[in-house]
Design a protein that fits this description.
The complex is a heterodimer of chains A (124) and B (651). In chain A, 36% of the residues lie in helices and 23% in strands. By secondary structure, chain A is of the alpha/beta class. Chain A has a five-stranded parallel sheet with strand order 2-1-3-6-7, with helices on both faces. In chain A, strands 4-5 form a two-stranded antiparallel sheet. In chain A, α2 packs parallel to α3. Chain A is globular and about 30 Å long. With 651 residues, chain B is an alpha+beta fold. Chain B folds into four domains: 150 residues, PAS domain (Beta-Lactamase, 2-Layer Sandwich); 168 residues, GAF domain (Beta-Lactamase), CATH 3.30.450.40; 101 residues, 2-Layer Sandwich (Beta-Lactamase); 147 residues, Heat Shock Protein 90. Chain B contains 20 helices and 26 strands. The longest helix of chain B has 40 residues. Classes of the chains: A alpha/beta (124), B alpha+beta (651). Chains A and B meet through α1 of A and α15 and α19 of B.
Amino acid sequence: MNGAALPPGTRVLIVEDETIIAMTAEDMIEDLGCTVAATAGTLAQALDQVEAGGFDVAMLDINLNGELSLPVAERLRAAGTPFLFTTGYGSTGPGTAFTDAEVVRKPYRAADLAAALSRVLTPG
Amino acid sequence: MPEFRALLSGGGVMGERIRAHDWASTPFGAPTAWPQSLRSALSICLNSSAATAICWGPELRLLYNDAWSRMLGPGRPVPLGEKAIKAWADIWHVVGPQVKTVLETGAGYAAVDQLLPIQQRGHTHEAYWNYSFTPIAGEDGSVAGILHQAQETSDRVFADRRNALILALADRMRPLAHPGEILACACRLLGEALGVGRVGYGEVSPDGSTVSVARCWTDGMMADLAGNYRAEDLGKLHRALRQGEICWLEDAATDPGLSARDRATLRRLGLRSGLIAPILVEGRCRAMIFAHDGRPRGWGNHHAALLREVGERLRQELARARAEAALRESERRHRLIFEQAQDVVFTADLNQVITSANPAAAEALGIAAEALVGRSVGEFVAPDTFRRTTGMLRRKLAEGGTTRYEVEVFGKTDLLHWEISSTLTTDGDGHPLGLHAIARDVTERHAFEGRQQMLIEELNHRVKNMLAQVQGIALQSFKGKSDVAEAQAAFQERLAALAAAHDLLTRRKWEGATLTQLVADATCRLAKPDRIGFNGPDVVLPPKATVSLVLALHELATNASRHGALSTPQGRVDIGWRPAGQRLRMEWRESGGPRVAAPEGRGFGLRLIERALASDLGGAVALDFATEGLVCTIDAPLPRAGAGNVVSALL
């Protein structure tokens, strides 16, 4: 749907501390024909999920109830796993270490998410 | 008498008088019988342009030339052939012994700057002379007469004396800073030089109405005249002074210009003689200097000249001392401002090397003010900043004016933000000498602005997050619902619950809420509050858990109203909670409702209850669809008390 060329069955890790937003993201992912590999609400849970693996792409809320999700992003980058950030911050992004990273601003539409996921999954 | 004429030709008026004089009846005898020595000497005398006289014979009778006659002046006529002892009666006590020595020894005598006091107008006047007595040998080889030449040197002597006094005065006044000391010094020196009883100095007020006399120098006998005098009371004296005239008084007892009243006044002041000189500035009498004496005495022009000169020097020195005092006072005031300013004040040369700094600068930089002098501005700022201050300096040099800019400065402990206002200092011709700068510390303002920016960012983040939540609630509320009106109602109720949760937090200044408050608040918004009971101690929940629990209670209540205990008239709900060790156990128990069967799928409400509570309370949530009624149990760590204030909640 929405014309985004996302490979069907793409496994997505959702890192989001707000339950309602996480649930919405899950629904969007499923509506896009993808699979929710796991949902993590804290930094520790997210790191555990990265450790466990089993996903193709991750979407990371930058601020996890006061903690930044940057360590998760570093692991993913080291592993070569594509990811994007989601955030409610306006001008401040994930910081200088991730200036080139894909950032989706909240509140986002399903089409915005699909386009961003598509971009990180097919770089270049 | 052809021979006589030939012999004594020329000689001007005196030559004529001598040739016409009847000498035969005098001790000189007939000129034809005069010895050659007398004739030769007389010839030299009459033809000399210097004041010359001859004292001839045992009685030293005087013959003299035109120059000598002029030298005596019209007031002192000396008859031709007068005896020297008689002509020089007032100075004979000085010259008599000198003449006698010449006669006895046959050797000449010369005097240099010899004081010869002269009586004039009833007073003794000082006069100084260079003169010589040269013996004239008679035909028998004995001293027959004396050739006398003289020149008055009073003017030079007085001028020398005046110059010496002025120099001494200048030397003594120069180191004095206080006007009173300068006055005392000048008056004493003048009084001693003139040998008078009192010397004083009075200044005329700007409007000319008052003369203010400072403390006088006196010989100890005369009284001090210090005080203020009305100019009109000084009468004639003041009028004369105003016109720049010197006032002379040689004897108050006999001066014909004085009235009886004047005399009485002067007697009261113990003043018999005096000299008062006005001191003019641009033609106006600004001050006066006076010398008084208790005895009558004559005054010469040299006294007046001395008084005028000392007076003028005194005025200049007083002006200097007052200007310096004013400057010192002004400097003191500026120094005080400099020292006590809260703002940083410093000066620098055109190479931006500090030339002075105030205590505020020393305090901010943690270096003593003296130690800052000689250091470059570049030592206290980053290289980039120094390039910028250098650019500002160039701009001022090119365009003048003041530059205002902010710089970061390496302070004692922290990086400081200074708002600098800097101007060029110039010499009298407008050439730049250096910089004068005032800096205000705006570090706190910067920190505040930074904090404010951060709060705005955070607020933006929260609003976006809230919108995302609302978006989620909307999507979930409308998802798969065919009854739009029902979906809208559910959506609005959820939004109302979310708003109520925030109201609760706002009332509590965003410090979380107690469970009792939260449950009471949630149940009273329900349709049937009387059928909900709750019981539990006060436990404070953090903000995020508060919001989740309010939403969860809303979903439970909605579910109960539709399918559960609150859908029948008898059913009820009991909410209970209790801390157990480090854990909190909470229960929602429905009873008296319809028989319950577990639903086939979970709607948004139930999913939210399970997930949000589990996530935000960090515990486990169980939904038990027991036949007699739904039971929801929560087992979570006991929340820490005092979970933070609004700022820590925001940051």
